[in-house]
Amino acid sequence: MCGIVGLLVRDQGLEQDLGRYFTTMLEEMTARGPDSAGLAIYDRGVPAQALRWSLRSDAPTIDWSSVQAAVDTATGATSSIEEIGNIAFLVTSAGEEVVSQALLGTPDHQLTIVGVGKAIHLIKDVGLPRDICERYRVPQMSGYLALGHTRMATESAITTDGAHPFSPANDLALVHNGSFSNHASIRRTLADSGVNCVTDNDTEVAAQFIGYRMTLGDDLEEAMRHVLKEFDGFFTLVVTTDHQFSVVRDAFACKPMVIAERPEYIAVASEYHALASLPDIEGARIFEPQPEEIHTWTV
Amino acid sequence: MSVQTKPPLTLDARAMGVTAVNRELRAQSAGAEVNITEVRGAHNLGVGLTNKIHININGNAGYYLAGLCDGPSFTVNGSVGWGVGENLMSGVVRVRGNASESTAASAHGGLVVIEGDASSRAAISLKGGSLAVGGSVGHMSAFMAQAGTVLVGGDAGDSLGDSLYEAVIYVGGTIRSLGADAQIEEMTATDVTLVREMCIAAGFDHINPENVTKVASAKQLYNFDALTKQSY
Q1: How far does CA A60 lie from the centroid of its chain?
Q2: So what's the ipTM on this one?
Q3: Which end is more exposed in chain B, N or C (fewer Cβ atoms within 10 Å of the end residue's Cβ)?
Q4: What is the topology classification, in CATH, of domain B37-221?
């Protein structure tokens, strides 16, 4: 199974409530994916030229101020950090290479860079969606775009790294309901092009593939068309960047997806009940994407 | 003497939960009318009922509404998710809005009416029931349908009637493509009568029974032809 939800807010007045609406949507998808969950929330809070680093520590205890100090010493720039338990969001204008080295240079911190970008917050963990949202204060988050996934693992282990979204490029996030049957061959082809997957997960291959296509100059919709051409299997995919939001289903449309369009927001979910709590949902245009039909919205 | 009719019972699906709603529905005696509110896309409402009651669903329902039912009738003032009327045995299920995938899948009897559109795989493996869709149906509709009738007022998607058995399909609009072993056949007077009766039962007045396309099985897949090309 697996559940997908996404919410793009077009009315700025709704941005402050994004986390609250989104949490309800994600919780409604618990039955489709109770083993792990993840989410990407995009906001406009990062200063120009700076990037936000979504970090996770697997150490028993973590002193985020020492992580921040290490980054600032290495980069000579002043960062800001927001910490929530074992995760943190570090914002710095320093170059990516040096920040990445500083973060990963202290093995004791056991850091994982979950995602990087000028708008994205990326959070994932194992457990129930409700617990994860509460743990990381998701209902209090604001922003203009949110993408979430509840996982029922079928092809690789239940781990935090195996949870969706996958984010192989800045501000890119991908979630998947289904399974790919030719991911091993595409994984090898990508490796030949110098793109190496980190996990054994089939979905990561699609995320890396889209990231790679975009480095070749594809926009999101073109990259999605290449996914339809190259990937075999069952899939509903939702992919977000800081300015785009795209949905596609495989040729058989085996995996569900419902889209609700209103002037104030675009919302997508695997099942309608995840949309039922959104404001004025009764007046939304509700439809399903047809097989191999790519729907893309621009922020 | 006047016949006393009980006022309709109203059940709040959100407050009660689906299991309690279904238990309450099962407890109703014949002739009862029940309104279900606060539906909010809930799955499995009104499944497996055998009492002759009428159920009004006010809102959008989730998956498998009215599945396996043998007795009640339903009116949905809203849309429904996957598998409405799945394995229906008898009764009328009317949806005023649209339906998602696998509408009336494996229905053995009864009539499912979708006033809007139905999505992919409508009437898949139909086993004797009837499906009337006012709007269009998605791809692979009536796949392997064994018996029964499908009426589509609008257009049909790709691979209509793939691997059909004895079920018959009538389409008012266009057919994007036919599935393997499905073929267009001449309408007979009996077909016209059947479509007319189905339009009356469904309450459709936008379909001209004289002007629909009939799709049935070419029956070329019924038997394996071992002599084909002698290539084994």
Answers
A1: 25
A2: 0.89
A3: N
A4: Pectate Lyase C-like (2.160.20)
